[in-house]
Amino acid sequence: MKRWLAFVAALAAITPVVHARSHKELQIYFIDVEGGQSTLLVSPSGKSVLIDTGWAGDRDAGRIVSAAKVAGLKQIDYVVITHFHQDHVGGAADLLSRMKVTTFVDHGADMENSDEAKNLYATYEKAIKGVTRVIAKPGEGLPLTDVKLEFVAAGGERITDPLPGAGEANQYCFSEAPPPEDATENSQSIGILVTYGKFRFLDLGDLTKVKEMGLVCPNNLLGTVSLYLATHHGGYPDNPRALVWALHPSVAIMNNGAHKGGNPDAWQIVHDSPGLADLWQMHYAADADSKHDVAENFIANVDEKSEGHSIEVWAKSDGEFTVTNSRNGYTRNYR
């Protein structure tokens, strides 16, 4: 607790005050960065958190700025970089050239040592020079006042104690094949749990099975969630049944690309999760068969050449939330 309070106090000292908005809902924008990740959260009081920046170049930075303008933002308070891969951090410099960011959060130094990895990390450090930087630790979070944002994994580590209401033995662990080892940056991903009253949203970045299993086996440390973002763009053997089914999500979103993620095995596990109302996709998975794509109303981008359509979520503290496909305006309400 002392560690948490110290972290909150330190961040609060460098966080500008944002006047409360009139609405009482948490906004989440799943921005299409075509096989990468960029997710914008705006709390009811107007605090903003961007999870990852997509690829380098004008396209993804432009889409992020457009989403921020729709949300009424003039700056982004926090950018959380889940890990140092091109599709998650490549757009950091381009975003900073277009919009003010107050604080960057990451897991610390890049764990990969290839020339490409070294250049990417050096570019990131150069881009954020002069911007406040915070290193995420499991069990800590961000001071958003009306919304609780917790780090459940970061830098290869994870929480070790169950969250309130969690901790039950997980019956799905026993049937899982042993997870493969993973020495890449994916295993270092920051995992984020966002709670707004009864609404809970989980984003584990590209966390791979060996790390996912530690969060839910033998006991489920996370509990259940309202909304689940499929890990690693819907990759497999990530999104194991022991994780997804234990989370018992009401709705899942897969941030796949036309030719990235959306693995049929992972898709089936998520799709079959007990109690799941709907699965939504960022893209039509062109490499999957017709049985492993959802109906078009639930897919933001159905063509090979994406127009950057997003999936938007508005959540209330009583647990009710809506999901909207920006391509066609199709909306579903969930309780």
Describe this structure in words.
The protein is an alpha/beta fold and 335 residues long. The protein contains 8 helices and 18 strands. The chain has a single domain (2-9, 22-329), classed as Metallo-beta-lactamase, Chain A (4-Layer Sandwich), CATH 3.60.15.10. Strands 6-5-4-3-2-1-16-17-18 form a 9-stranded mixed beta sheet, covered by helices on one side.
Taking all Cα atoms into account, the compactness measure Rg is: 18 Å
For the biggest β-sheet, the strand order reads 6-5-4-3-2-1-16-17-18
CATH class: Alpha Beta
The CATH architecture can be named as 4-Layer Sandwich
Summarize the structure.
Helix content is 21%, strand content 25%. With 335 residues, the chain is of the alpha/beta class. It has a single domain, classed as Metallo-beta-lactamase, Chain A.
Attribute tags:
single chain, alpha/beta, Metallo-beta-lactamase, Chain A, 9-stranded mixed sheet, 8 helices, 18 strands, globular, disordered N terminus
Helices, strands, pairings?
Blueprint (H helix, E strand, L loop, with lengths): L1 H11 L13 E5 L8 E4 L5 E4 L6 H13 L4 E6 L5 H4 L2 H5 L3 E7 L8 H13 L4 E4 L5 E3 L4 E7 L2 E2 L32 E6 L2 E5 L5 H8 L10 E3 L11 H7 L3 E4 L9 H8 L6 E6 L15 E3 L9 E5 L5 E5 L5 E4 L1
